[in-house]
Amino acid sequence: MEVSKLEFAALTAELRQLNEKEQFLKVFLRDHPEYRTALIGSTGAYEADYDSLMDKLRIRWKRFFPDEPFFLENSLYNLREGFFIPEGENVRIIKNLRYMPLILHSHQFIELNYVVRSGGSQIMYENGTIPLRDGDIVLDPPGFSHCFRAFGEDCIILDILMRVSTFDTTFFTLLTHNSYLSALFSNALYRPAKGCILWHCNGDIALQNIMLLACQESLAAEKYRDKMLELYITQFFLTLMRRHENEAVFSIPMISDSDEQFRTLLNYMQTHLQDITLTKLAMQYNYSERHILRLLKKHSGKSFTELLTEIRMNRAVQLLKNPAIPIPRIAAQLGYASKGYFVKVFRSAYGVDPDTYRGTDPVTESTADQPG
What we know:
Elements: H1 5-16, H2 20-31, H3 47-64, E1 78-79, H4 81-84, E2 91-95, E3 106-107, E4 110-117, E5 122-125, E6 128-131, E7 137-140, E8 147-149, E9 156-162, H5 164-171, H6 179-190, E10 197-199, H7 205-220, H8 225-244, E11 249-250, H9 257-271, H10 278-285, H11 289-300, H12 304-319, H13 327-333, H14 339-350, H15 354-359
Parallel strand pairs: 1-3
Antiparallel strand pairs: 2-9, 4-7, 4-9, 5-6, 5-8, 7-10, 10-11
């Protein structure tokens, strides 16, 4: 199925309309033009400026919308998965807010940005600025501190938000044959990232069609929406890799020999969850156990056991979405000798046991909040 030119034009026109938050922000920037140029964070030297900006926004919001909660309330510098991705969903598509002051932020999830119309927009980070073009695709790993400069109605950017566990189990495996990209995401998934990846894809009608279909699906709020979105985004990512894999532009040099070693170790751990041990990992690559522990600590900040548990828990979350797989089988697939021990580890990671988690994460979704 393809999106016709008329459908694309209609959807673009719909996305071009300013929503309530954007209208509010546009007026705010008109009255406070200093925030059109000031790059602001929420920590260190930026903290006082950030607090001042939040106070001004909050006071004005309450004046115009006294009965509505401030839309940035509890939205921290490091944006949480649960704040933006509703429970029971793995992928969410929203429109990037235009006229947002230049607040540097990072997030705990994977963000993919699709530039429908650039309108002169830019992605900004502490050490640089990248102008964006129509059709550009930006992949922002967790921990990458950035913001978008989008001060016009023609700056139309779609944000695709993905849980790390979903990316880890669904998309990361697609990169295993590209050592550079997979090394980057080995680092990105398990330690804060310092840069982003950019693809210039203007004129790629296939990617445009998939993204617009995904956007339409997101707006429809029909049954199985989350599953359909996962399929569309998987198709989008596969098409991107097939057509533009070697055209990736990196905001900073990001990969070293040590990174490549970490990627190799991580790939092996992810594909041998049932029987992996530190000793087996060391023997597989003829490394000393001390060298492996040092590499894992450097790149993830975690011990072998901590990193293995995180990988297993990411995989567990995905396996639990299939109600046909019994809990004992999931435990065995992940390398746990007993269901009881798996339940204990899962409860420690997520605060509930696997059966309860499965019960609150149904296969059928229907009426989640629409993007805005």
